[in-house]
Structure formats: structure tokens, C-alpha cells
Design a protein that fits this description.
23% strand; 8-stranded mixed β-sheet; 13 helices; 352 residues; 5-stranded mixed β-sheet
Length: 352
């Protein structure tokens, strides 16, 4: 991506990839997460792809999972409604290949497999549960272009609804290689349910940060990332709603715009200032802010607590922000023809 003039001295923005004129066959990727259901349909365009259709809806599939160990009927119904909408959109668009995945909520829930069997019966979508390692690999797949152009190591983090994925990456000859990963059983949904309104208080927020930081300690002890950061050449890259929200606040966007956020580089000072601003808004201010909104009010500060714990333990001078993730990684794999064996053709009734 080519840099454009930064909106402030502490921020470097990236220009979106030009739209190609010719399109190849369409591919579809669906990601059923703990908090969101997302779908992306794209066609090959050089080394990347052009987006033909996208879908995103907050479904809170993991609501109550921390307390009960199972997906609730209400949560499953919400997710099914979103999946029916995805199936209807795909039925209207010929696609060469579909891959649909589920992550932490369906990995942990005692009735996760049963729910996915119901999804297949009712929608025709065959959704496979992926491992935490594959989550890290898919995130790295999609974010690899943002790591080009320097550095010898990178720490990629993905703050999800039910878990937070970490990927420790070696960069050699411009190519990133995964050398270590971990999946913490904490995400924005689990933290929101555990801490509730206390997370909006100074003491509660600090306690959330301390809790997450303690969980990061084992990854640090294995890979000595702090020492690597002090030696230089290490970059942090975050891909999640939390980091894109922080970027939107830092850029003072009147409304969220992906082309201005994806690939932006925030200085540590700019990221800290944006986080501090979010913490002072309160529930009403967060609900009214165009980069947050009422549906995400309960999840923003828990995500910020994870971000604060990561940057406290690993204080890199800058963080790269990515508005891309598992769906993009799946599309790139399918388009190259080297996706996992579990990826399937015509995974939806009526698709070709």
C-alpha cells in the first residue's frame, strides 16, 4: 500500500488498493465468531482480490457461555438469523468455492457441534470449527502485506469475542513465518460478562488490564518478546474491532472509513491518547460516537483493556492497524488453491 499524507503528526495512513477492471471467479468466506457473523465474497485481482459483497452482524453467539459452558437458545437463534441472511445472499451469486468456519464459542461450547449440525440442516452451510493455530495462521495470511518493508520480527494480536490470538512472527526476505502462537481464553465478550459495569470504573479497568497481563506472561517467558523489542526491529500489528476503533478515534474520523484505517500506523502516544479518550466518554458517549455505536458499547473498554495489557508488556513505539482478518485469509488461500482440505466446493445449496 502506498502512504498518503497523515491526518496528524502521530499517524501514518495508507491508500486503498486500486480497483481492477477484470474479475475472475467469485469465492466466499464466512467467519462465525463469538460476537460477530461476517461474510466476504471476492474475486481474484492480481495478488489480492476485489470485494463483491460483504456482510457483518453482531450476533453475540457466546453470550453466557462463560457461565454455563453452552450456547444459549437465544444466542443460537440470533446467529441462525444472520446465517440465513448469508445463505440467501450466496444463493443469488454464483461462487466457485465457499469456506465457512467457527471459532472460540463453538470450540468451547458443549453443544457447539450440535448447533453447527442444525445450521447445516436449516441453511445448507457447512461450518467447520478451526483450531487456535489456524486462526493465527489465517490472520497472518491476511495481514502479511502490512508487514512488508522492514523489521525482523512482528507480534500480531487479534482481540476477538471469546479469545485473543497471539502470533510471534519472523520476517525474512520480506516473508513472514509463524514461529509461535497462543490463544488466551479472554476476549471482549468474556471480559464484559465477567466485569460488567465495573469495567467502566478506573479500578475495574485497571483490574481487567492486570488480569490479561498475567495471562500474557507465559508467552513472554517463552519468546522473550520484551527483550526483542528493546533490541529493535519488532513491530506490533493488531487486527480487531478494538484497534480499528482506536485508529478511528486517533484519526478523529466523523464516521468509520475502512480505507483510512486499514494499514494505518499509530504511534504509541497516539494510541494511548485514543484509549484515554474512549475511557472518558462513558456509556452514553460511546453509544453516540460514530466509530463505536450502541451495539458495541459493552465491548469497547474490555477490548481496550486487552490492548493496554499487550502494549504495557510489549511497549513497541508504533502499532500497525489492520481492518482485515480470517475472512481475507481464507479468500487468499482459496484463490491460490492451497487452502486446507476442509475447504469445500458448493458448500451451500444452490451454489455453483
Amino acid at each position: 500500500m502506498m502512504p498518503q499524507e497523515a491526518p496528524s503528526a502521530d499517524v501514518t495512513a495508507a491508500r486503498p488498493t486500486p480497483t481492477p477492471r477484470s474479475l475472475g471467479p467469485a469465492f466466499a468466506a464466512l467467519d462465525l465468531g463469538t460476537n460477530n457473523c461476517r461474510m466476504l465474497v471476492g474475486a481474484p485481482a492480481g495478488d489480492s482480490f476485489r470485494v463483491l459483497d460483504s456482510f457483518s452482524r453482531i450476533v453475540r453467539l457466546g453470550e453466557g457461555l462463560h457461565q454455563t459452558g453452552a450456547l444459549s437458545q437465544t444466542a443460537m437463534d440470533r446467529a441462525l438469523a444472520a446465517l440465513h441472511a448469508c445463505a440467501a445472499r450466496l444463493a443469488r451469486r454464483p461462487v466457485r468455492r465457499i469456506r465457512a468456519i467457527a471459532t472460540e464459542a463453538c470450540r468451547r461450547a458443549v453443544n457447539g457441534r450440535e448447533f453447527l449440525a442444525r445450521v447445516k440442516r436449516e441453511t445448507g452451510l457447512e461450518i467447520g470449527v478451526i483450531t487456535a493455530r489456524e486462526e493465527a495462521e489465517l490472520a497472518l495470511e491476511s495481514c502479511a502485506p502490512l508487514l512488508a518493508g522492514g523489521g525482523r520480527r512482528a507480534l500480531l494480536f487479534d482481540i476477538g469475542g471469546g479469545s485473543t490470538e497471539l502470533a510471534w512472527v519472523r520476517i525474512a526476505d520480506g516473508r513472514p513465518t509463524l514461529i509461535g502462537y497462543d490463544s488466551l481464553p479472554v476476549g471482549v465478550v468474556t471480559l464484559a460478562e465477567r466485569w460488567g459495569g465495573a469495567g467502566f470504573t478506573p479500578d475495574g479497568f485497571t483490574a481487567m488490564v492486570d488480569d490479561v497481563a498475567a495471562r500474557l506472561a507465559s508467552f513472554e517467558s517463552i519468546h522473550c518478546i520484551g527483550r526483542e523489542i528493546r533490541n529493535g526491529g519488532v513491530r506490533l500489528l493488531g487486527t480487531s474491532g478494538t484497534v480499528t476503533t482506536l485508529a478511528g478515534i486517533a484519526l478523529e474520523l466523523p464516521r468509520y472509513r475502512r480505507p483510512l484505517v486499514d494499514g494505518v500506523v499509530l504511534s504509541a502516544e497516539a494510541a494511548d491518547a485514543a484509549l484515554a479518550r474512549l475511557r472518558t466518554m462513558g456509556r452514553e458517549g460511546l453509544a453516540q460516537h460514530p466509530c463505536v455505536g450502541p451495539e458495541r458499547v459493552d465491548f469497547v473498554l474490555p477490548g481496550c483493556a486487552v490492548f493496554a495489557a499487550i502494549t504495557r508488556l510489549w511497549p513497541a513505539p508504533r502499532v500497525i492497524v489492520a481492518d482485515r482478518g480470517l475472512r481475507e485469509g481464507m479468500l487468499l488461500r482459496m484463490m491460490r488453491g492451497d487452502g486446507p482440505r476442509g475447504a469445500h466446493r458448493a458448500g451451500l445449496r444452490g451454489a455453483i
